[in-house]
Amino acid sequence: ILRSRTIIWNGPPGVFEWDAFAQGSRAVMDAVIEATQKGATSVIGGGDTAALADKFDAVQKMSHVSTGGGATLELLEGKTMPGIAALSENDKTQ
Question: How far is 90 from 61, CA to CA, in rounded Å?
């Protein structure tokens, strides 16, 4: 993680909601924060990952945080986003 220039993170690696099991998720979060502070671009997608960032006050330390995990991945894959497609079609009719 620390050597990465771009980090796409979708899904925490553990049950961070329970403090007894949050250590691994916290370690990944801390590494992503450190990499971002050193210039990496970090994109966090998904409600659970966004909740993890919120729990550890890390949202503002990331480049981008989205609650749409599946949608984020589909956008990166180049798939058509239904909402954007509908807006685009509406724009063509005017």
Answer: 37
